[in-house]
Design goal:
By secondary structure, the protein is of the alpha+beta class. It contains 3 helices and 4 strands. Helix content is about 30%, strand content about 15%. The strands form 2 sheets. The protein has a two-stranded antiparallel ribbon. It starts with 12 loop residues before the first helix and ends in an 18-residue tail after the last helix.
Amino acid sequence: KIGIKLIRKRGFLRPIIEALNRNEIVAFFTDQNAHGSGIPLQVFGREARIPRGAAEFALRLDKPVIFAYMIRETPLEHRLIISEEIQLTRTGDYKKDLQQNTAHFMELIQAAVSRRPEQWLWMHKLWNTRIKV
């Protein structure tokens, strides 16, 4: 056991807030399709709806954000890459801040994927959303 707890989609709000208030690490998978509730962004040149959770919790609860991912070096060796704390955009316009921070998180993901695209474990349809303009 390494202490990782899974928070299910159903009823996620309270467990996430409680974990963050205990200063626990909460991981958000931002390279997902959030369908209608997501932030519309260009991801690798195509429109997608990106989950707002990481930016929303960070902005509302004033919690720090880092970016982390794993690189496979050999079949039995992996390297964990962890960024410094990401400085959040806080203009006073919540909707704009939510969009800009979510976009920044996706830029970090796209940069990491672009460096090692064969390492991107991706088993869902990120671009399976039609965005109305």
